[in-house]
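Weekly sync, protein design subgroup
Attendees: M.S., D.O., the rotation student, P.L. (late)

Item 1: inverse folding check
M.S. brought a backbone from last month's batch and wanted to see whether the design step gives back something sensible before we order anything. D.O. pointed out we never logged the input encoding, so this time it goes straight into the notes. Structure tokens as presented (428 positions):
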């Protein structure tokens, strides 16, 4: 379907494709698949790209198979790795599989056959090594496998250590997945990141040699930062996970708010389903008033709503506005302990006995004697006189007394000096 591929290309979601794909997609609804290896118990923002592409194909009338690599996850794809992966133990692997399957079920409806969730362990578990070597291995030569860029890069990176047979066979196992899905479900198209081209073409070649028929491959770009590094980590180097327990919705929202203008123009096409007309109009307005960060706001709102829901997105927006000078202090007091600690992760903390609050605690004592945030009473008075001190985002003077009614999540006080210097008092 030319319109679909043109749309993917315009959005920056098409990297390479095999000849004949357009004719196949125009001829009939086509079954296709993308694989997700369970290297962690949550997907991350990079994982949203294949999910989005599968949805684009689904909306165009094709059937996505969403594969979780319960079998291949036992080995680990060597792509992009300079050293051997650590093999996952069974308990960790099963935990990861369950977590990823639950997240995928959030994005796809697997109940009525429009999309299908599959696990390659279901067909791999019954194959013996001898059967695999005889029926599959003989169709792909070692020369063919070594010629793959991914293998050559790995061998050149570690010439002394080389590559284990376990990881070397990964491309053949992935190729067998494609062959199995072709035979069992008439799956004609495998998709993956641009670094997966070698693995995908191995599957296409295996189908050709085993059956004499044609299958197809398509890749999408790996999303990278301006410096070429992998996209999907915060400034602190932490992955931005889809699991709200690992990355809070607030930080998920802030991640998109903090992208550059150039990246915002790119990501609004890649990561949303907004129409081309709407996106181009939004970019035009944003370029006229870039300081208002309209693209980042829309990107953050669309993604947070899609992944976490409208209500949670609205809460993230409200807290964001509060922390950056807008909104009401009451929004801060609606945070539960988990969200509060997630938002203010790494902020200096001091502990305080609740009796000190019951009796009333002066702001100067909280900053100096109890909290040890400022070095002296004179420094505290000077900052208070300059209106540089806030309690729970409200500016206070030196007459302010903290009480139990000021607590957030029943046990925290948020103190602030200037715009970015925060302190937390935890009440025991």
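Designed sequence read out in the meeting:
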């Amino acid at each position: 379907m030319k319109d679909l591929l043109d749309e993917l290309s315009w959005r920056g979601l098409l990297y390479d494709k095999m000849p004949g794909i357009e004719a196949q997609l125009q001829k009939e609804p086509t079954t296709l698949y993308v694989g997700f290896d369970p290297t962690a118990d949550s997907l991350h923002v990079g994982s949203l790209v294949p999910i989005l592409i599968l949805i684009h194909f689904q909306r165009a009338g094709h059937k996505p198979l969403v594969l979780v690599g319960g079998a291949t996850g036992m080995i680990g794809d060597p792509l992009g790795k300079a050293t051997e992966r650590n093999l996952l133990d069974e308990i960790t692997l099963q935990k990861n599989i369950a977590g990823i399957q639950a997240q995928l079920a959030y994005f796809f409806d697997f109940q009525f056959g429009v999309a299908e969730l599959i696990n390659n362990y279901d067909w791999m578990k019954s194959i013996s090594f001898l059967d695999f070597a005889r029926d599959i291995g003989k169709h792909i030569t070692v020369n063919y496998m070594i010629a793959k860029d991914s293998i050559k890069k790995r061998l050149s990176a570690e010439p002394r250590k080389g590559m284990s047979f376990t990881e070397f066979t990964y491309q053949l196992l992935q190729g067998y997945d494609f062959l199995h899905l072709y035979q069992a479900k008439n799956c004609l198209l495998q998709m993956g990141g641009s670094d997966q081209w070698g693995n995908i073409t191995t599957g296409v070649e295996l189908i050709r040699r085993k059956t004499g028929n044609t299958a197809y491959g398509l890749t999408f770009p790996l999303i990278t930062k301006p410096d070429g590094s992998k996209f999907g980590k915060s400034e602190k180097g932490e992955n931005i996970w889809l699991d709200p327990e690992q990355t809070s919705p607030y930080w998920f929202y802030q991640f998109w708010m903090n992208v550059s203008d150039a990246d915002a123009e790119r990501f609004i096409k890649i990561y949303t389903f907004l129409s081309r007309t709407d996106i181009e109009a939004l970019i035009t307005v944003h370029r006229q008033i870039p300081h208002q960060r309209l693209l980042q706001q829309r990107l953050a709102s669309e993604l947070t709503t899609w992944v976490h829901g409208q209500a949670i997105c609205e809460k993230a927006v409200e807290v964001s506005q509060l922390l950056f000078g807008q909104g009401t202090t009451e929004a801060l007091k609606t945070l539960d302990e988990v969200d509060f600690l997630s938002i203010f992760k790494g902020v200096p903390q001091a502990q305080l006995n609740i009796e000190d609050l019951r009796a009333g605690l002066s702001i100067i004592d909280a900053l100096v004697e109890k909290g040890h945030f400022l070095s002296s009473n004179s420094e505290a008075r000077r900052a208070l006189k300059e209106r540089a001190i806030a309690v729970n985002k409200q500016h206070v003077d030196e007459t302010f007394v903290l009480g139990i009614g000021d607590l957030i999540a029943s046990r925290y006080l948020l103190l602030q000096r200037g715009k970015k210097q925060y302190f937390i008092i935890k009440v025991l």
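Discussion: Residues 90-107 form the longest helix (18 residues). The two ends are 63 Å apart (CA to CA).
Action: P.L. to compare against the previous round before Friday.
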